[in-house]
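Try this one yourself first.
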């Protein structure tokens, strides 16, 4: 059997031969060359010490092309009708027939990345590939090598999109896909974006997604990502944010699906008075494994960051949290908080937590910490003593633990959907409604 890296390099040659050269051909060629030099990650690398990517190495899943098959109705994954519009990607490729249009402020662009490369190439090429770490992260390089389509959101100066935008990912199964996103919020603009990932079958898939996000001065962008694929799915998701002065960016990352999931969320606070908020919630069961890596780079003074990740781990599942706050020498008056809490529901669930501070400035206020524990027996006894059955009492405490993150999701329909999914995943289902 050929080595995994060789399979991807061979697949790249086939895709290039089929599609020929285009505006991002040099970017793809540079990325595949770097991928060939790096190879795939392994356990001897510090950043991958607790995550074995053997399932990805062993998965012989062909690269997906555009398809008109697999789905005719997306209402089951729509979260209701409070969205400005919905952009649907099937196996990483835009499906116009499943997407919905909406009334947007003048100048706002929401379209497929492939379409944007044709119609808005000046904007796209000014940002695409400029922020994501393709030179030292193999899966980012891989995504860039297979870059074809994804989502493009552009907010011109002072544009405000009142209703959220939904980017819906659907995987048909048995394939690899490489969605690439570019979100650009110009000065003074504001929007809310919800991304969700779902499976159309029980078959295994590999989804490798990269999002580059630019939040300019005084802009506000709220971004929720939901990993809800089946429990055989392989999933990597890298989000790279670049923030300007007085900007605000919030990310709410919910991971419930997947067999192996790796999330990387990085933000560069590149000017003064920036606020960045990262919230995460992961619930694993069976043999699921989720690895969350975050990095916040405080490069300039008077910035703040708030990070809260919570994990609930059941059965023989496993998790990783590795978060780094890097405060550069010039970043005086930094205010950074990082917290990771993990709830182990069995003696066989495992989590590795690694909160980190790297500080080169002397006038800062930074805190970090991680905790791993089990349900409080005193709290369980209190609920039992008031006539609440044991399983229901247990579920109430688990949901209370998760709600601290889940209730921060700004879109009500998404927040309620996450709460319902958590109820369904707990023993006894939704018995406590």
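Now uncover the answer:
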């Amino acid at each position: 059997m050929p080595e995994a890296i060789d399979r991807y390099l061979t697949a790249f040659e086939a895709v290039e031969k089929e599609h020929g050269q285009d505006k991002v051909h040099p970017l793809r060629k540079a990325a595949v060359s770097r991928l060939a030099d790096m190879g795939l990650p392994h356990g001897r690398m510090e950043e991958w010490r607790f995550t074995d990517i053997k399932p990805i190495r062993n998965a012989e899943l062909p690269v997906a092309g555009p398809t008109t098959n697999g789905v005719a109705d997306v209402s089951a994954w729509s979260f209701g009708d409070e969205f400005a519009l919905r952009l649907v990607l099937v196996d990483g490729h835009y499906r116009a027939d499943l997407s919905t249009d909406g009334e947007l402020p003048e100048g706002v662009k929401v379209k497929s990345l492939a379409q944007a490369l044709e119609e808005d190439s000046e904007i796209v090429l000014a940002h695409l590939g400029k922020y994501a770490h393709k030179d030292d992260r193999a899966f980012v390089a891989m995504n860039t090598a297979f870059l074809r389509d994804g989502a493009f959101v552009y907010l011109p100066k002072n544009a405000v999109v009142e209703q959220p935008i939904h980017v819906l990912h659907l995987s048909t199964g048995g394939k690899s896909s490489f969605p690439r996103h570019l979100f650009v919020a110009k000065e003074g603009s504001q929007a809310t974006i919800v991304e969700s990932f779902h499976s159309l079958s029980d078959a295994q898939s590999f989804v490798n997604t990269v999002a580059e996000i630019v939040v300019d001065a005084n802009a506000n962008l709220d971004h929720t990502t939901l990993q809800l694929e089946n429990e055989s799915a392989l999933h990597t998701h890298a989000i790279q944010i670049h923030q300007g002065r007085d900007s605000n960016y919030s990310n709410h990352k919910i991971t419930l699906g997947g067999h192996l999931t790796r999330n990387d969320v990085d933000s560069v606070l590149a000017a003064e008075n920036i606020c960045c908020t990262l919230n995460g919630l992961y619930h694993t069961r069976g043999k699921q494994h989720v690895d969350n890596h975050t990095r916040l780079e405080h490069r300039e003074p008077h910035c703040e960051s708030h990070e809260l990740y919570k994990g609930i781990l059941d059965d023989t599942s496993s998790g990783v949290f590795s978060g780094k706050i890097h405060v550069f020498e010039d970043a005086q008056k930094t205010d950074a908080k990082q917290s990771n809490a993990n709830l182990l529901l069995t003696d066989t669930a495992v989590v590795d937590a690694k909160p980190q501070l790297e500080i080169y400035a002397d006038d800062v206020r930074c805190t970090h910490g991680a905790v791993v524990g089990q349900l409080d027996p005193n709290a369980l006894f209190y609920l039992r003593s008031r006539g609440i059955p044991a399983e229901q009492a247990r579920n109430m405490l688990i949901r209370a633990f998760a709600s601290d993150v889940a209730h921060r999701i700004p879109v009500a329909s998404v927040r309620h959907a996450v709460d319902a999914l958590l109820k369904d995943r707990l023993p006894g289902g939704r018995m406590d409604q």
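Discussion: The first helix runs from residue 4 to 19. The mean pLDDT is 94.
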